[in-house]
Amino acid sequence: MTIELETRIRSAGLRVTEQRMAVLRALETHPHADADEVRRLALGELPGLSLPATYVVLNALTEAGLLRRIEPAGSPARYERRVGDNHHHVVCTGCGAVDDVDCVHGAAPCLSPSSTSGFRVTTAEVTFWGLCPACQAAETTTTTEPERT
Ligand SMILES: [Zn+2]
Ligand SMILES: [Zn+2]
Q1: In the predicted model, what is the mean pLDDT of residues 43-68?
Q2: What is the whole-number distance in angstroms between the Cα of residue 143 and the centre of ligand 2?
Q3: How much of the chain, in percent, has pLDDT values that exceed 90?
Q4: pLDDT the model gives residue 122
Q5: Nearest ligand for residue 33 CA
Q6: Within a 13 Å sphere around the CA of 75, how many CA atoms are in the beta-carbon half?
Q7: Distance from Cα 78 to the centre of ligand 2, integer Å
Q8: Average predicted confidence (pLDDT) for the chain
Q9: Could you report the per-residue pLDDT of 115-144, keeping only the tens digit for each?
Q10: Domains annotated on the chain, with CATH
Q11: How close is the Cα of 142 to the center of ligand 1, in Å?
Q12: What one-character DSSP code corresponds to residue 39?
């Protein structure tokens, strides 16, 4: 596992560092984590890892193609290691949970706009919005409207 990670980092043209390893490991178990979550997950391996340092690592890995960054409206950027396929995301409007949605067609772009204004379209990034199972369960157990604060 460690060897495989090192090989991946190297073949992306990056130097292998403890920080890069720790960030990739954190995202292995927690896909779609934001920078703060990644930092907290990596702290076990790298005590003292700062948030700015985490961003530097995340940006380098994203630019090298090892990570994908998704930015659902109204939520901080999230990162994942599932790159290179044209999958989409479903985001919970209640709690912000994110999950993967496989591309219906499998190949990019899965959606063909009727007019592209001359653009050559290569990818389509779709965000589906809805309520996750936990929020649906909470909704059905609540008999009254949630209290406004
Ligand atoms: Zn939810
Ligand atoms: Zn994903």
Answers
A1: 96
A2: 34
A3: 68
A4: 83
A5: 2
A6: 22
A7: 9
A8: 90
A9: 888 998 888 888 999 999 999 999 887 655
A10: 2-70 (1.10.10.10), 86-141 (3.30.1490.190)
A11: 14
A12: H
